[in-house]
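Researcher: We're teaching a course module on how sequence relates to structure. For the next exercise, students receive a sequence and then see the predicted structure as tokens, so they can try to spot secondary structure elements on their own. Here is the exercise chain.
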Amino acid sequence: MSRPPLYRSTLPNGLRLVVQPLADAPSVGVAVHYDVGFRSEPPGRTGFAHLFEHVMFQGSEHVGPADHFRLVQASGGTANGSTHQDHTDYYQVVPVQALERVLFLEADRMRALHIAEETLRTQTAVVKEEIRQTVTDRPYGGFPWTILPAVLYRTYPNAHNGYGTFEDLDAATVQECQAFFDTYYAPGNAVVTICGDIDPDRATDLVERHFGPVPARPVPKPTALSEPVPTRPRYATHDDPHATLAATAIGYRMPDAETRLPDYLAHMVLGEILTGRDTSRLKQRLVHASTTRTGTGAAASPPATDVSASCGLFGPLRARNPETFLMVATHPTTTDTERLLEVVDAELADLASAGPGERELARSRALITSATWRGFDNVVSRTRALGTYELLYGAPHLVDDLGDRLAAVRAEDVAAAAASLHPQERAVLSLIPGGGNP
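Model: And here is the predicted structure for the students to work with:
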């Protein structure tokens, strides 16, 4: 299978550029990734990185507040941004004729963002309302990613809630925003990615024209993320007044994707084997268990209504080490957490000793490989992934290599991944519902 070419370069000011031409693509994707996420924000300012993402859309030297969205939409495109553990990305998809306009908009705010007191207070209110709608006032809101890290990890960068507290958000100042911008939003701390039916030389020329004049600034030292693996299991509970069913989240430490990528990919296949389809191991044991009869003759419900396993709090290959292998089960309150853990441990032990069956492995590899290819068969997803993989791992080519590498995972690799998920090294978070159990 032929792969689209990749062109990588670095401007004198340190800005990295990744260009991937895609013949006959109907539009062009442009993303700017900054090497800053909520694991970079200082103590006492939880939620600051996400708040700053909102501020970035509120005007620069030549662009008025909210005009970034207006100008992109007027060109027939869409724009957005997102904040993750270790990066913040701003992305748009537009007709190729609008490529230069988007590059101008991105370069203008990288060079001369305008931060006003009124803007900060308005965006603080917007972010607080987002938290209400997606976390505090919603059943299972933010579960488990806003809560589980504090159970599995101990250092502030890894453990704190990236949405932040209202008190910390309200305390943010314009001066702190300006210092955050000056520290992290430097060209040497960023990657520009362009993907679509474009000429790479022209794309490079346009990037140099608009981003080249942005002055270089010192690049901050990486945030210290390393911490010891737990030596005994950690437990916590979380009360959710809006939830009607209980839930349990189990977190394990994962291999470092940068230095142990084959081991990381084996965990991705393991997750597919455990919960990726209705016939997967944990779905069969917990969700589709044969109905039994109680002593009174009544039918007993299966232990869980749903169960999933995944790599990463936000999905695979979206953060640096340490990262989390995650299992989440939704279940009746009558299902004891220890019962769930016994089933999980039994399946992991079986896979560790015997490995997956040949057909089971082939089916799981086929499903995860096809899902991976489909995930990149879209300009915006591909553009963002190229930028993420370049920024975090220096490996944008993973976008086109990942499917084949997952297809090459062996039974012994999956067995080793299962064996690495030790009960004494995990965190278990139990959600206690308050909305009544139907």
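Model: If you want an answer key for the exercise: The longest strand covers residues 246-253. The longest helix spans residues 117-136.
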